[in-house]
Design a protein that fits this description.
Length: 156
């Protein structure tokens, strides 16, 4: 079966401006150029997959129901913009509170799960994160291209 390539996107700091523990619609300001990049990804046959640490859940700042509601709304925005994401993965843990896990970046658990779930070829894939830990997770999962986001989108 043919493998797919993916554009792995971190959420906070890449998709939306990082306002620290965003969980409400009013917390979300989409980054400039995001949807253009995502439409380009679609045009080049990348599946868009979001991978996000959400330690605010472990910290009790918001719960999974609130997180899911926000992601449903964000996912609809992507759809309206003509660049629906394929899936998203989140880590609700924090090591100090819930103990170690295999999903919190820099661990590659979320990316490995996505690779298996969606038949992704990691070496043909691209990851964009605003944190070194995003890139470490991508590297550990074998993602071929890793880009640190500082407001400029990589060309592809
Ligand atoms: Mg981030
Ligand atoms: Zn986790």
């Amino acid at each position: 079966m043919r493998k797919h390539k993916a554009l792995f996107l971190d959420r906070d700091g890449v998709i939306n401006i990082d306002t620290t523990h965003a969980y409400r619609r009013e917390d979300i300001i989409f980054t400039d150029g995001l949807f253009d990049v995502c439409r380009r990804a679609h045009a080049h046959d990348y599946k868009i997959i979001v991978v996000t640490n959400q330690a605010g859940i472990a910290r009790g700042l918001y719960d999974e129901t609130q997180f899911y509601a926000l992601m449903r709304w964000m996912g609809e925005r992507f759809m309206q913009e003509g660049c629906a994401w394929t899936d998203y993965y989140f880590c609700p843990h924090h090591p100090d509170i819930t103990g170690p896990c295999d999903c919190r970046k820099p661990k590659p658990g979320m990316i490995l799960r996505a690779i298996a779930d969606w038949n992704i070829d990691p070496s043909a894939s691209l990851l964009i994160g605003d944190n070194q830990t995003d890139l470490e997770a991508g590297k550990a999962a074998g993602v071929g291209r890793l880009e640190l986001f500082k407001g400029q989108w990589p060309r592809f």
